[in-house]
Amino acid sequence: MGKRGRKPKTPIPETLDSPTTTVASPPPPPITTAATGLDDAVFSVSNVEIIEQPQASHPHQEGRRRGRPKKLRKLTDNPEIMTPSRRVPRTVDNGEHKGSLGPAVAVSDPGAAWEGVARAVPAMDAVVKVFCVHTEPNFSLPWQRKRQYSSSSSGFVIGGRRVLTNAHSVEHYTQVKLKKRGSDTKYLATVLAIGTECDIAMLTVDDDEFWDGVSPVEFGDLPALQDSVTVVGYPIGGDTISVTSGVVSRIEILSYVHGSTELLGLQIDAAINSGNSGGPAFNDRGNCVGIAFQSLKHEDAENIGYVIPTPVIMHFIQDYEKNGAYTGFPILGVEWQKMENPDLRMSMGMKPDQKGVRIRRIDPTAPESQVLKPSDIILSFDGVNIANDGTVPFRHGERIGFSYLISQKYTGDNSVVKVLRNSEILSFDIKLASHKRLIPAHNKGRPPSYYIIAGFVFTAVSVPYLRSEYGKDYEFEAPVKLLDKMLHSLPQSPDEQLVVVSQVLVADINIGYEEIVNTQVLALNGKPVKNLKNLASMVEECEDEFLKFDLEYQQMVVLRTNTAKAATLDILATHCIPSAMSDDLKT
């Protein structure tokens, strides 16, 4: 993230959308599909050469076969050297033989030429196209929703009659349908779980016909650098399945744009376009090693795509299987500082052979706030020593941020954290929990809460609310005080919310207050406002003559209690608002 007030030079990865309807609403989240066990006989260069047997009457082409790509391009006018791999999508579409391959596969055994192609069909059959209708909440007018829009994307079949795709592909869904490759039928799908942080969703289909002849994909291990990967999906540019290939160029902790979290991710150089989201990435053995989910769009960058790796996918699946629902990724609720400066280490009482990171502050709502203290030095997590720069060993010759160790755990798991405090080494057994932010990054599909009195619309601030009010550049357009709280404030209690006056619906009773917008409410009649429900109950139960709201910037709003409550009904009727408060505040 760049410095406040100045746009960052580093481009931000974006999730990939593939909308199918032109509506005024923003484009829907992208989805892509994955194929199971794509065979290297189709995708690896060496095996393409085996399939591409040149005719015996042209022995001089033997050398050209292994030449550079531009040499091949000079010869594409000659139909005899057209590679079958280029023709496969056209001649074997939907698993049916639609035409002859011609001279390119004129080999002694016709079955041998088709052997590799035939093996790829079952793998492709596990790739499905996802059709979703979205109806997003209107965070600026929280009593209504935006106009619905449609998107198409991809998913792939895994064991247990389930389908995986991206969470942003089915966000705010009202209907999800799946279509198998080569089928003309769309099957209604049920959403089992949505993992917003890891950007994965799990679906199923009740119709038994959908599962006929479909083999689930097999998952592979985390790939190494320079391992080849093949991304399969339904990106823009056509209706049929698309295959792109590349190599793993980076493995590290990545920022997941949709979930506003940081988890392990793969960077690949295969083309990932809108609609590829949710599609699988296969290794050269045909095992799935990840799910395509976002790419980097920038004038200085080309072909930078990101893939959710197998450890994150398996964490999501096992979390669902263990708990019957998605519970999320735990975090250690601390902010820390690197200990690379020798004077800093000496002043903290660290010995030359000791390494670790210093705790700056602790989330008061996190379980570890009971045992850890600011300025403690975290030496190790679950027995793994942490370096002065906050990294831990990761495979051979690689290092990775120690948050990777925490993300491998499940919510409610216990971990042993070893700290240095006043030159004494202490060990604590800590129960890990998920993170609660003062301004949440997402509402997890729930409609926004609101409360209206005398035309004042009160709501709780969230990142989707800021995006609705100020657009995608909300980090530069929103009020500085709200941004400061979003980035740096910690909640003091689990149910604390930042409540603001979203807008004032103009009426006679609120004359002079019309220009108040997105200003925090601090107190009502001298009592601090903890959250929106707390504010609503205080107003409803107020028997004082006046309602006195203390706002940010030392502003004050005073309304006569009886007339304010009486005027509310007329204001609701004028603006066609069904209720003075959202359903979650009525309970």
TrEMBL record:
Coiled-coil regions listed in the entry: none
One Pfam family per UniProt: PDZ_3
Occurrences of domain Protease Do-like PDZ (ranges): 439-584
This protein's UniProt keywords: Hydrolase, Protease, Serine protease
InterPro entries found in the cross-reference section: DEGP_PDZ (IPR041517), DEGP_PDZ_sf (IPR046449), PDZ_sf (IPR036034), Peptidase_S1_PA (IPR009003), Peptidase_S1_PA_chymotrypsin (IPR043504), Peptidase_S1C (IPR001940)
GO molecular function, one term: serine-type endopeptidase activity
Annotated region described as Disordered, given as residue ranges: 1-38, 50-104
Any one GO biological process: proteolysis
Keyword Kinase part of the UniProt annotation: no
Similarity field: Belongs to the peptidase S1C family.
PANTHER family per the UniProt record, alphabetical: PROTEASE DO-LIKE 9, PTHR45980
Name of the protein this chain belongs to: Protease Do-like 9
Species in which this protein is naturally found: Prunus avium (Cherry)
